[in-house]
C-alpha cells in the first residue's frame, strides 16, 4: 500500500505547482494584451469617411507626451500613411523662380524697328491665356514689337470682351518692359491704317520654326498677324525663354480691377464660412461630355442630345465610350468626385466651391454630391444677381471669377485635363505647391465599378493608393513632362539649405533617417505612379469647329531660310532676302504634333 500512496503524493505535488505556472502565464498574456491595447488606435479613429476634429478646449492642457490627431489629418487603413489634407508634402522646400539671367538682353537693345507682331487668340479664357503668354515669347524670338493681343470673339463662347476688359493692360505692358516692347495699337503707316499680313503657324512651333517661317515674312511685310494663336509655341524652349513664359503667366497677366475686386469678395465669403475650402472645377457641362464621347447611362435621350452637340466638331471620329472610360478620358460624375474626396479623408463638414457652367442633368446630377458635402457653394449662391450682373453676359469674365476663387482655395480639384486645370495646376505649383487633386480616372474607374463589392476601408485604401502621384506634391511629375503651363519645372527652384537644416534638426533631436528614407520611397512611388498611370494628354479645346483662316498668300507661312541665314536675319546682321525660299523639311513633323 506504500507504493500507491507515494504515487498519490507525487501527483498532488505536480498539481500544486501547475496552478501557479498557469496563473503566471495568464498574467503575462493579459499584460501583453493590455500593452498592445494602449498602443493600438481607437476603432473610432479608423473612420475613413469622417473628418476628425481637434478639441480646441483641451488644447494646451495635455501633457507633452500626449499625441493628438489634428483636424487636418485623418487616420486611414493599414498600409496608407496619414496625410495633411490642406498642404502638400515638403512644399516649403520649393519656390517659384523666374528672373532672367544676366545673358538675357534688354528689350530696347534687341527690338528691331518696323517689326510688329499681332496675334489673335483662340478659345475661352484659359486657352487665350496660353496664347497671350506664348505671344510674348514669340515676339522676343523675332525681336519684334508685340501689339496687345486680340481676344477671340467669334468662337463657341461668343464673348465680345477686349484684352483690357479682362486684364490690366497697363500693368501688362509695364511689367514686361525690359523683356519685350509692347504697344496697344499698330501705328499708322504713312498716315493711314496699316493692315497686317495674315498668316498662321503649326502647333508647337519651335524658336527655329518661327525664325524660318515667320521672320522672312515679317521682314518683308513689317507687320504680321497670326490667327488662331493657341499652343503655337513649342513646349520645350531655352531656359530664359521658359522663365519669360513664367513672368508673363504668373506676374504680368493680372486681372482687371473690377474682376479682381469681385473675385476677392467671393474668396472672403468662402473664408467667412470656413477656415479651409475646396474648389472643384466640375466640368460636367453638355459640351464637355459631348466632346469626350463618354456615356453616363442616360439612354437614347443622352445619346441624341450629346451626339447633336458633338457633331459641331467635324474632326471628331465616332466615339467608343467604354474604351474612353478605360483610358481615363471620361470626367468623373459629381457623385464619383464626392466619393473620391470622402475616401481621401475630407468629411461632410468641408466647404466646397464648385466652378461650373450648366451641369448636364441639372440638380438631379448634383444631388449625390450635395448629399456628401452639404456645404456646397458657387458664385451664384454667395453673390447676388446684382453683383454678378456686370459679368454675367460675358463668359470669360465669369470664368475669371471662378479662376480667382479656385486659385485662392486651399485644395483645388480638377475633373478633366483641360486648359483651366493645366493653367491652375502650374500656377499652384509655382506659388508654393498648394494641393491640386486630379483624379486618376484610369485607375479609379475600376474602383468605382467594384465599390459595392468592397468594404469602406478597402475602397478608401484603394483610392489613396491610386491617387498617389496625383495630389500636387513637389517633384510629382518629372521635369519636362506634360505641358509647360501645367508643369513649369524650369521656374521652380528647390531650397536645398532648408532641407539640410531639417535633416540636422532631425538628427539633433535624436531621430534617425528612417523618416527621410520613407519620404524618399513615397516620392519615388508618386513619380512612378504618374509615369505609368498618368492620364493620356486629353485636351478638350473647345475651339470653333470652323476651319482656320489661311494666310492669303501662303496658308502656313511656309517660308524657310538656312538656319545660319535665318539667325543672321533675326540678329539684324543681314539685310538680304532670299526670294527662292525652300519649304521647311520639318513641316510634316510639326503638323503631326
Explain how this protein is built:
The termini are far apart. The protein is α/β, with parallel strands linked by helices and 593 residues long. The strands form three sheets. A five-stranded parallel beta sheet has the order 4-3-2-6-5. Strand 8 (351-355), helix 13 and strand 9 form a beta-alpha-beta unit. Helix 12 (334-343) runs parallel beside helix 13 (362-372). It has 23 helices and twelve strands.
List keywords for this structure.
carbohydrate metabolism, disordered C terminus, 5-stranded parallel sheet, 593 residues, FucosylTrfase_pln, disordered N terminus, globular, transferase, 23 helices, membrane, transmembrane
Proportion of strand residues: 5-15%
Strand order of the largest sheet: 4-3-2-6-5
Q: Roughly what is the average pLDDT, rounded to an integer?
A: 79
The biggest beta sheet is recorded as:
5 strands, parallel
Radius of gyration (Å): 31 Å
Which geometry do the CA atoms define? globular
Low-confidence stretches: 1-11, 35-81, 523-593
- The secondary-structure class comes to alpha/beta
Biased composition (Acidic residues): 536-555, 581-593
InterPro entries: FucosylTrfase_pln (IPR024709), GDP-Fuc_O-FucTrfase (IPR019378)
Transmembrane segments: 21-40
Protein name: O-fucosyltransferase family protein
Task: Summarize the entry for a quick read.
The chain is of the alpha/beta class and 593 residues long. It has helices at residues 2-39, 107-110, 125-141, 163-166, 169-175, 207-221, 239-252, 257-273, 286-292, 299-310, 321-326, 334-343, 362-372, 379-382, 385-392, 395-408, 419-430, 441-449, 456-467, 496-508, 514-533, 563-571, 587-592; strands spanning 94-96, 116-121, 145-147, 182-183, 197-199, 223-229, 277-281, 351-355, 376-377, 411-414, 436-437, 492-494. It is built from 23 helices and twelve strands.
Amino acid at each position: 500500500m506504500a507504493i500507491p500512496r507515494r504515487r498519490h503524493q507525487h501527483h498532488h505535488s505536480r498539481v500544486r505547482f501547475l496552478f501557479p505556472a498557469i496563473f503566471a502565464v495568464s498574467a503575462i498574456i493579459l499584460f501583453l494584451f493590455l500593452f498592445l491595447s494602449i498602443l493600438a488606435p481607437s476603432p473610432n479613429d479608423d473612420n475613413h469617411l469622417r473628418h476628425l476634429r481637434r478639441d480646441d478646449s483641451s488644447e494646451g492642457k495635455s501633457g507633452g507626451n500626449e499625441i493628438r490627431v489634428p483636424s487636418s489629418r485623418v487616420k486611414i487603413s493599414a498600409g496608407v500613411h496619414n496625410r495633411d489634407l490642406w498642404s502638400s508634402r515638403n512644399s516649403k522646400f520649393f519656390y517659384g523662380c523666374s528672373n532672367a539671367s544676366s545673358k538675357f538682353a534688354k528689350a530696347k537693345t534687341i527690338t528691331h524697328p518696323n517689326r510688329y507682331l499681332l496675334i489673335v487668340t483662340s478659345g475661352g479664357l484659359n486657352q487665350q491665356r496660353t496664347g497671350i503668354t506664348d505671344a510674348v515669347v514669340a515676339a522676343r524670338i523675332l525681336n519684334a514689337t508685340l501689339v496687345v493681343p486680340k481676344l477671340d470673339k467669334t468662337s463657341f463662347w461668343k464673348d465680345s470682351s477686349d484684352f483690357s476688359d479682362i486684364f490690366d493692360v497697363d500693368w501688362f505692358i509695364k511689367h514686361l518692359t525690359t523683356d519685350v516692347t509692347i504697344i496697344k495699337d499698330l501705328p499708322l503707316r504713312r498716315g493711314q491704317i496699316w493692315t497686317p499680313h495674315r498668316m498662321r503657324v503649326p502647333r508647337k512651333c519651335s524658336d527655329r520654326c518661327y525664325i524660318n517661317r515667320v521672320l522672312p515674312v515679317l521682314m518683308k511685310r513689317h507687320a504680321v498677324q497670326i490667327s488662331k494663336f493657341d499652343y503655337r509655341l513649342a513646349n520645350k524652349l531655352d531656359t530664359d525663354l521658359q522663365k519669360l513664359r513664367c513672368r508673363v503667366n504668373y506676374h504680368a497677366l493680372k486681372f482687371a480691377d473690377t474682376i479682381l475686386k469681385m473675385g476677392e469678395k467671393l474668396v472672403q465669403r468662402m473664408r467667412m464660412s470656413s477656415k479651409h475650402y475646396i474648389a472643384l472645377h466640375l466640368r460636367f457641362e453638355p459640351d464637355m461630355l459631348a466632346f469626350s464621347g463618354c456615356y453616363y447611362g442616360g439612354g437614347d435621350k443622352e445619346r441624341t442630345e450629346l451626339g447633336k452637340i458633338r457633331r459641331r466638331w467635324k474632326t471628331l471620329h465616332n466615339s467608343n465610350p467604354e474604351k474612353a472610360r478605360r483610358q481615363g478620358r471620361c470626367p468623373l460624375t459629381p457623385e464619383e468626385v464626392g466619393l473620391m474626396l470622402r475616401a481621401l479623408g475630407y468629411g461632410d463638414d468641408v466647404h466646397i466651391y464648385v466652378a461650373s457652367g450648366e451641369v448636364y442633368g441639372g440638380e438631379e446630377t448634383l444631388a449625390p454630391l450635395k448629399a456628401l458635402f452639404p456645404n456646397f457653394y458657387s458664385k451664384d449662391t454667395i453673390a447676388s444677381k446684382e453683383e454678378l450682373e456686370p459679368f454675367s453676359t460675358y463668359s470669360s469674365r465669369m470664368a475669371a471669377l471662378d479662376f480667382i476663387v479656385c486659385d485662392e482655395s486651399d485644395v483645388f480639384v480638377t475633373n478633366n485635363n483641360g486648359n483651366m486645370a493645366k493653367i491652375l495646376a502650374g500656377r499652384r505649383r509655382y506659388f508654393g505647391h498648394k494641393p491640386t487633386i486630379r483624379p486618376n480616372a484610369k485607375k479609379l474607374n475600376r474602383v468605382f465599378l467594384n465599390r459595392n463589392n468592397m468594404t469602406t476601408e478597402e475602397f478608401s485604401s484603394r483610392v489613396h493608393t491610386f491617387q498617389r502621384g496625383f495630389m500636387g506634391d513637389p517633384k510629382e511629375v518629372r521635369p519636362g513632362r506634360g505641358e509647360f503651363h501645367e508643369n513649369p519645372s524650369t521656374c521652380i527652384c528647390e531650397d536645398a539649405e532648408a532641407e539640410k537644416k531639417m535633416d540636422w534638426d532631425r538628427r539633433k533631436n535624436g531621430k534617425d533617417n528612417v523618416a527621410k528614407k520613407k519620404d524618399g520611397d513615397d516620392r519615388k512611388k508618386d513619380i512612378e505612379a504618374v509615369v505609368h498611370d498618368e492620364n493620356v494628354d486629353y485636351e478638350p479645346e473647345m475651339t470653333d469647329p470652323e476651319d482656320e483662316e489661311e494666310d492669303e498668300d501662303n496658308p502656313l507661312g511656309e517660308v524657310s531660310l538656312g538656319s545660319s541665314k535665318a539667325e543672321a536675319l533675326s540678329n539684324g546682321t543681314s539685310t538680304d532676302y532670299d526670294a527662292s525660299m525652300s519649304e521647311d523639311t520639318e513641316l510634316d513633323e510639326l503638323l503631326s504634333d
